[in-house]
Amino acid sequence: MRTETASPDEVTAPPPTDWSEARTRVHAVGLAAALPAVERPLAEADGHTLAEPLTPRTDLPAFPTSSVDGWAVRGTGPWRVTGRVLAGGVAAPLTEDGTTVEIATGAMVPVGTSAVLRVEESTRTADGLVDGVPRATPEWRRPGEEATAGEPLLPVGTPVDPAVIGLAASCGHDNLRVRRQPRAALLVFGDELLTEGPPGGGRVRDALGPAVPGWLRRYGCQVSPADVVGPVADTLTAHVAALRAALGSVDLVCTTGGTMHGPVDHLHPALAELGADYVVNTVAVRPGFPMLLAQVVGADGRARFVAGLPGNPQSAIVALVSLVAPLLAGLTGRPLPALPHVTLAEPIAGRGDHTHLALVRLDRVAGTAHPVRHVGSAMLRGLSAADGFAVIRPGSAGVAGDRVPVVPLPLLPGERAW
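RE: above sequence
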């Protein structure tokens, strides 16, 4: 990995990194610093990531299980009833031809059973015998039909959702070995920001302080109210102090604003004072320019990360999906998120040598993506109506009918929109 040490004398940014390369580089750095594995009870595992393959502790099913209500029979009928077996019970073996036990769906099939006769396809004779013709296909699930003991069912890096938790329970697990969830903090930079009331008098309302923690939680981060700090005063001293304090307790610090090199943009000098190395310093993407990701190695030898998000709200979210999402995937041991593809319903302009991330809404019936309005880098109205960003490659434009990649906006664990 190529990194650059932040310099307080730096006044111009280096050439921007290609957007796709930036995603790959950030994910690799995250994997190299993957968080430790921990054990969590099933009830607390939702939203985590498997740190070891999921395997059954026994064959699934562990014993032959009736798939219908009816009669477990031995030999040819009619059959004499000798008992009953319900789910959760163990029946005595059928040792004589011409005998049967009543059986419930999910119950263990007795040893010696030759067939299971469905109750609705059976009759009772005048002398109390059971008669009927069993189907040719066995009416029970055989041991190991779904999986065998120790068989890898899900690999390391699988996100844990309710379906995974249910499977783990059926495999006999009480706990799961998962990656510890990342903990994140947010530092809001900018003396011009208001934290309550309407904008006015040259000051604007901070829209990122209330919003970014929710996005981070949807990426699987833990963010407490105490970890959201700001506005931080526009001084180098305040920036360094805020960053140092946050890095002492979290894995990732996101900052808003200050990613340029203006008179009150102190992020780059603050990173230099902290001995940070840039993983990515500016990305060739619009909107979202400039953004950065740096790492700071603590006294314990473990890397922490600083994601510099632009101050313009939509640009900040572009930085989240471009740099923060791949980083968090790496930190939790997940693969780099694959981008789904959709068909453009309308043309989307290119942005020259930069990748254009264009807000779109998904028509789930037609399977097409439509660009939304109000998409300036300082606007959030378009974002509130969108499902994700269409990726228009450098040097190209989107034409109606094109199949293009899409970066989905993060959802709650278990939700799947694309």
